[in-house]
Design brief:
Chain lengths: 318, 642
């Protein structure tokens, strides 16, 4: 059901004043004619607004994870039945209780997929309350809305810290901790897991496969500074924790871009990410959800003293 | 996110808003409600707004505009305090028009033009009070389209097909509006809650009046309300006089004419005395009837019958329950005998005679001065008028009196201009009028009457209606409120009265033109007059017409079966063409294919638009066609993939 917009309420008030003036003054044909014109325009505009959105369906296909402070990419599909084009259709997504227009089509005809953005949000996992297609075409007096399906959450991970011009792992560590890596890394198998699409055929563990009856692959874990190992202590607050998370994010991006592995250990969490291991999206989700722990909380899992510890507290890496 | 562009970057919207403001100024111009020295700068500021708006970031620029609005508002407040509500509407119109121009030149890039839309409609509404002729209709038609387009562009930006969609929507709104106007029941005679205030404002309506006062400068409202309808029963239209008298005035005090309200003295027994042989009939003199007409009178406020000077018999409808009250000057008042009220429309028939030619005598003023001195009183005549009268009298010395009368009337009508009260440049005194400022019919009649009296010609001022609005068959005469008029009746030395009208007449000149433009303009004006004077009777007739339409259509079909079949075939053909047109490819695809054809190429199977574009570049297609193909390819991609 179309509802009045701000302009519509103003028009209603204006029309009310004119009605009063009409009855206050002696009857005049042209006065009545102009009032009729305005009334007809208002009524028809409501009808045309409803008709503009009738037969239009849509869906928010995906809301991509984004860094805090960055616009959030959104892809939306809209389809209009029939040959009649629809004009000025917008997609509005309600995130964390705030409705924001994400995308606007000047014309919708047939099936269309559009890319839009949501405004930047702080780090976290934000609930999507709903999404709607809306239009106030043609005159803007009334607005019609139609609910569409949308993902339930928006993932906003920490903004990556600036790693400058680090090109090697050593550079990274120097930049972060001011120390150099002393040994080369060597990757060794740490276990066996089920086969996932994308795993290299050479990593297939044939004996385990024969035992299990399904494909199994070796899982590799860096034993010493192989890839990047991070121990994240969540017993930090505010800016310190956020900075630490930003550094982890930046390291994850670096590792992803350089096809390195990243191992993260923290209170209640331990995982290896990279090719053949857990997906990077999972790490971003963890980082988005990470919450500060009190000072008397248990420490992170024990790791080698060579592991990069964050937040960095002065020369931890030896 | 793709937002609707702000109005500054939306060029069609800027043009639409400019057109709206221009049309508003045209509304104000056709209402003649604002002086040219206000209008010319406003037109200029509007037309130059695309350049002026570049100075908008400047604080000085914005300050100057705001000071301008405040200054005009202050002037108008002072005017209101000085003159009351007399010029309320006119001053409000100036302020509203200037505010429109101000908005157009000062609207920020992120502001919405909502106020501009509302103000534009308000101006159209107010000007409808002052201008109800075809000019308003034509401007309003353009305004409706401009408003619809501008609202569309402000809401949706520039979308493909916005022009056609806007035309369809504007046409639909106008069509439904006129339908609502025709069928919606309402009280056509409602007087309103503030009629007293409007009356105090001095705003006058052109029409019959029992008070003739020179010097009123209030704005005049011209109404096309039908006052009388006259139908020929016997004779021809040429025998029906133009002037229908209501009241006469004999004494002028320098500003106001005083009416001759004496009742008729039946003992006088002259040819001019009304006799009542039976109830509902009045006769005077035994004359040969040159025409017999029936009259429907809708204006009963003044309780007067309007009859030509050459009427010798009046028959009132017996059902009316009214009684005649003849006056000494020959006019007819009536009173009602019923306790239940008067009929809405008065019906009576008249018989008129051919007027006698003026006598060849030169003067009988001594006799008149003795018996009717009030007909020669010249109080209030300026010296310039007396000199002019003396000069003309000298020039026509020795000639019959009527020659002098005609010469004086011609001199006034040819040398002085006609202006409605309240119009720019209209005279406020008789002296100003005789000095050359324009005036309306009361000025012309007053000047002639006093000038004639100053040279010994007895006469009086008469008010009533003067209409030449015959229908095509010249069997029905329509008399409207705007036909209210004032003229002079002169007492001929033979003792008869005859009519002299010194006001310039545009009707006679216009009636002689038969060009297509005049015919079209007259037709449009007649149609618009139907709208402006729409009343309860017209509404009833319209509804009856709609109700009879199916039956009339069925009868026509029965009488013209082959024509009906042909019309049906045309309709079927039109519908199938429309259906076929609807299944065509989307507009962007049509444009793309058209651009490909213009480039002289044929799309190959499986070839993408980009590949075809590359092929076009390699085939050395001409630059204009190639550019068109590039644009069409981009538009196609945008429409297809957003």
């Amino acid at each position: 059901m179309p509802l009045p917009t701000a302009l519509g309420y103003k028009a209603l008030a204006f029309f009310g004043v004119l009605i009063g003036a009409f009855y206050a003054a002696p009857y005049m044909n042209l006065f009545f004619l102009l009032l009729s014109f305005m009334g007809v325009m208002a009524v028809l505009s409501v009808w045309w607004t409803w008709r503009n959105l009738a037969g239009v369906e849509g869906e928010v296909l995906a809301i991509e994870p984004a860094a805090a402070g960055d616009a959030i990419p959104v892809s939306v599909r809209a389809s209009a039945r029939g040959r009649r084009p629809r004009y000025a259709v917008e997609c509005e997504i309600t995130v964390a209780g705030v409705a924001t227009p994400a995308l606007a089509w000047p014309t919708v005809g047939g099936d269309m997929v559009g890319l839009g953005t949501l405004p930047a949000l702080p780090r976290g996992v934000h609930t999507v309350s709903g999404a709607r297609l809306r239009s106030s075409y043609p005159f803007g007096f009334a607005r019609c809305r139609r609910a569409v399906a949308a993902p339930e959450q928006v993932l906003v991970h920490p903004a990556p810290a600036d790693l400058g011009s680090a090109r090697t792992r050593n550079d990274l560590l120097v930049q972060i901790c001011g120390a150099s890596a002393t040994r080369d890394s060597e990757v060794g198998p740490s276990g066996v897991r089920e086969f996932r699409p994308g795993d290299a055929p050479r990593d297939v563990h044939w004996k385990a496969t024969a035992r299990r009856g399904e494909l199994a692959v070796r899982e590799w874990e860096a034993s010493t500074l192989a890839g990047i190992e991070i121990c994240l202590d969540l017993r930090a607050e505010g800016e310190e924790l956020e900075h630490a998370l930003s550094v982890v994010t930046a390291l994850a991006h670096w590792a992803r871009d350089h096809k390195e592995l990243l191992s993260l250990a923290s209170q209640g969490h331990r995982g290896n990410y990279g090719e053949g291991h857990r997906p990077w999206r999972e790490l971003m989700g963890y980082l988005a959800r990470a919450q500060s722990l009190p000072a008397d909380a248990p420490p992170p899992p024990a790791t080698s003293p060579d592991v990069l510890r964050l937040p960095a507290r002065g020369g931890q890496h030896g | 996110m793709a937002e609707v562009a702000s109005w500054m970057s939306n060029r069609p919207l800027r043009v639409g808003l400019l057109a709206l403001v221009l049309l508003n100024l045209v509304f104000v111009q056709i209402s003649s409600g604002v002086a040219p020295h206000w209008m010319v700068p406003m037109f200029g500021l509007t037309l130059f707004s695309p350049w002026l708006v570049r100075m908008q970031p400047s604080l000085v620029y914005r300050a100057v505009w705001n000071v301008g609005v405040l200054a005009i508002f202050t002037l108008l407040v002072f005017d209101g305090l000085r003159t009351g509500v007399r010029y309320l509407l006119e001053d409000g119109l100036i302020l509203a028009a200037f505010c429109q121009v101000h908005l157009l030149n000062n609207l920020g890039p992120r502001q919405k033009p909502d106020l501009l839309f509302f103000n534009s409609f308000l101006i159209a509404l107010v000007t409808s009070f002052f201008c109800q002729d075809i000019a308003f209709a034509l401007v309003f038609g353009l305004y409706a389209f401009a408003l619809v387009w501008s609202l569309q562009l402000a809401t949706a930006g520039r979308t493909s097909g916005w022009v056609g969609d806007g035309v369809r929507k504007a046409a639909a709104v106008l069509a439904v509006t006129f339908l609502v106007f025709a069928v919606c029941p309402r009280d056509f005679t409602r007087e309103g809650l503030v009629e007293e205030t409007l009356r105090e404002s001095g705003m006058v309506q052109v029409g019959f009046t029992e008070q003739v006062e020179l010097g009123r400068s209030a704005k005049t409202v011209v109404s096309n309300r039908v006052v009388m309808r006259v139908r020929m029963l016997e004779g021809h239209a040429g025998a029906v006089p133009l002037h229908w008298r209501g009241a006469s005035f004999v004494w002028y005090d320098g500003r106001r004419w005083h009416p001759d309200d004496r009742p008729q003295d039946a003992r006088e027994g002259s040819q001019r005395t009304w006799m009542q042989p039976r109830a509902g009939r009045l006769v005077r003199g035994a004359r040969e009837t040159s025409a017999r007409v029936s009259v429907e009178l809708h204006e009963r406020e003044h309780r007067r019958l309007f009859v030509p000077l050459t009427t010798h018999q009046v028959d009132l409808d017996r059902e009316s329950g009214l009684f005649f009250m003849p006056q000494a000057d020959g006019s007819l008042k009536f009173v009602s005998s019923r306790d239940t009220g008067e009929p809405a429309t008065l019906r009576y028939t008249l018989r008129v005679f051919e007027p006698d030619p003026p006598s060849a005598e030169t003067d009988r003023s001594d006799d008149v001065r003795r018996r009717m001195p009030h007909l020669l009183a010249t109080h209030g005549l300026p010296e310039s008028g007396a000199e002019l009268a003396r000069a003309l009298a000298v020039r026509h010395r020795g000639e019959p009196q009527h020659r002098l009368v005609e010469a004086m009337a011609s001199h006034l009508s040819q040398n002085l201009s006609y202006l409605l009260p309240g119009a720019q440049g209209a005279a406020r005194t008789l002296e100003d009028f005789l000095a050359g400022e324009g005036g309306h019919c009361e000025y012309f009649a007053t000047a002639l009457a006093l000038m004639l009296r100053s040279v010994g010609v007895p006469c009086r001022l008469v008010t009533g209606y003067a209409s030449g609005e015959w229908d095509e068959s010249r069997t029905e005469l329509t008399v409207r409120s705007r036909h209210g008029h004032a003229w002079v009746e002169v007492l001929d030395p033979s003792g008869t009265w005859y009519t002299v009208d010194p006001s310039p007449s545009a009707d006679a000149a216009a009636a002689e033109e038969t060009s297509w433009w005049t015919v079209m303009r007259t037709s449009l004006s007649d149609w618009w007059d139907e709208v402006a004077t729409f009343d309860a009777d017209a509404r009833t007739a319209t509804l009856a017409w709609f109700g009879e339409l199916p039956g009339r259509g069925a009868r026509w079909l029965g009488r013209n079966p082959w024509t009906a079949l042909g019309a049906l075939a045309l309709v079927v053909a039109a519908v199938s063409w429309w259906v076929r047109r609807r299944v065509r490819a989307p507009r962007a695809v049509q444009d793309y294919l058209g651009a490909v054809r213009r480039a002289g190429l044929e799309p190959r199977v499986g070839e993408t638009p980009r590949e075809l574009l590359e092929r076009a570049r390699g085939a050395q297609v001409k630059a204009p066609a190639l550019e068109c193909l590039v644009r069409a390819t981009e538009a196609h991609e945008q429409a297809r993939y957003s």
